Amino acid sequence: MTPSETLAALEPQRIITLTHQAYHPEHILSLVEKERLSFEDFCALLSPSAEPFLPQIALRAQTLTLSHFGCVKQLYTPLYLSNACINQCLYCGFQARLNIPSIILNEKEMVDNYKFLAKLGFGHILLLTGESPLLAGVDYIERAIILAKDHFPFVSLEVFPVSTSDYIRYAEAGANGITLYQETYDKTLYRSLHPKGPKSDYSFRLEGPERALRAGIRQVGLGVLLGLSDWRLDSAFLGYHAFNLQQFYWQASIQVSFPRIQPILDAPHEIFQVSDKAFVQLICAFRLFLPQIGLTLSTRESMDLRNKLIHLGITHISAGSNTRPGGYTRASKDPGQFETQDNRSLSDVIHMLAQQGFDPVLKDWSPFFDLASKST
Ligand code: SF4
Questions:
Q1: Mean pLDDT over residues 258-277, rounded?
Q2: In angstroms, what is the span from residue 191 Cα to ligand 1's centroid?
């Protein structure tokens, strides 16, 4: 079975039970020391029974992160290329229903932003768009990748899912990674949150990471938008998805991100609060279950929380982010996709990491590796 078929076979009711039932304290403590956790163990660490043992779980997460990643913290920067979007995700500031003016960077504007960010020292850029096949479709994204590769050794995409043949085009243009959040694994909720547009196709999105990996993309990032649903349930599905992808595509780099929802005005859907404590619990549970995968945290989170979480499991962080299209070189009052909470500059974040004993890394990829992976 493929990873998405395996995931489809997972019974939500069983996961609700596994992540909410009471576990004996000794069982939770035994998991903290266990060498290799099963999926059921992971669910137990997400459960309310694990909350009192958060200090022990956090310490174990810290030890595992240090032993697998050392003191290295990878830095990247996002660049929004376009906010044009035909979808209506009810939680998003770019959704078609809000009728915000479309901004689509032209090639000169792209390159101006690339030059600005490369000059700061970034070697990894994450390119983002909404979903607008007519205004910023596959040709546009392919061209953006080609131009970005002149400035950044590592280019990843957070754009709409495409067919395998289009992912091949992205890979051949030089894309190294994609990030594709499922948003929620609750199919009924997914349908209600994505009432219109191509994104309403749950399965096409779910299978996107596998198409990308088959197409030769090396790194895949997964995530849910925390706050759309019961975080325990969605986190369990997410962990299972990441685990199965890593098993099936053992040569790929699988990563997990933890975006927490920031409500937009008049959001027509319920928000499930994810407290800071719950947030720490789920990140540490991921580290214990999947000790070798990269865990990413964006500037959606506050400076204080980011400073703490880099000790516990986070390996990749963004810095100096702007969520407005072309926002690094383009003065604008247009709304971004969300408001960032940690507004420190790249040099401030580097300074903080160094002060805390970490090695900030801006470039861990070389164009030579692109050639090497194409020839194997
Ligand atoms: S989340 Fe993405 S796909 Fe959905 S409305 Fe926003 S930009 Fe469009």
A1: 79
A2: 14
Displacement of CA 221 from its chain's centroid (Å): 5
Q: Helix %, strand %, coil % for the chain, to 5?
A: 45, 15, 40
Higher pLDDT residue, 285 or 97?
Answer: 285
Ligand 1 binding pocket mutation candidate from 89, 129, 178 (most atoms within 8 A of CB) = 89
147 lines ligand 1 (CB under 6 A): no
The per-residue pLDDT for 236 is 98
pLDDT for 235-257, tens place per residue?
999 999 999 999 999 999 999 99
CB-ligand 1 contact for 132 (6 Å cutoff): no
Angle at 275 between CA 4 and CA 262, to 5 degrees: 70
- Tell me if 162 CB under 6 Å of ligand 1: no
* Cα 310 to averaged position of ligand 1 atoms, centre (Å): 28
> Which residue among 94, 129, 225 is best mutated to probe the pocket of ligand 1, counting the most ligand atoms within 8 A of its Cβ?
94
Residue nearest ligand 1's atom 4 by CA: 89
Residue 275 has pLDDT above 70, yes or no: yes
**Ligand 1 in reach of 94 Cβ (< 6 A):** yes
For 171-229, how does the pLDDT look when each residue is reduced to its tens digit (9 = 90+)? 999 999 999 999 999 999 999 999 999 999 999 999 999 999 999 999 999 999 999 99
CATH of domain 67-229+251-275+294-375: 3.20.20.70
Indicate the pTM of the whole model.
0.94
**HSE-up of residue 110 (Cα within 13 Å, Cβ side):** 25
**Which of 128, 199, 264, 334 to mutate to test ligand 1, by most ligand atoms within 8 A of the CB atom?**
199
Buried residues in 66-105 as b, exposed as e (16+ CB within 10 A): eeebeeebbbbbbbbbbbbbbbbbbbbbbbbeeeeebbbb
Domain boundaries, the chain: 67-229+251-275+294-375
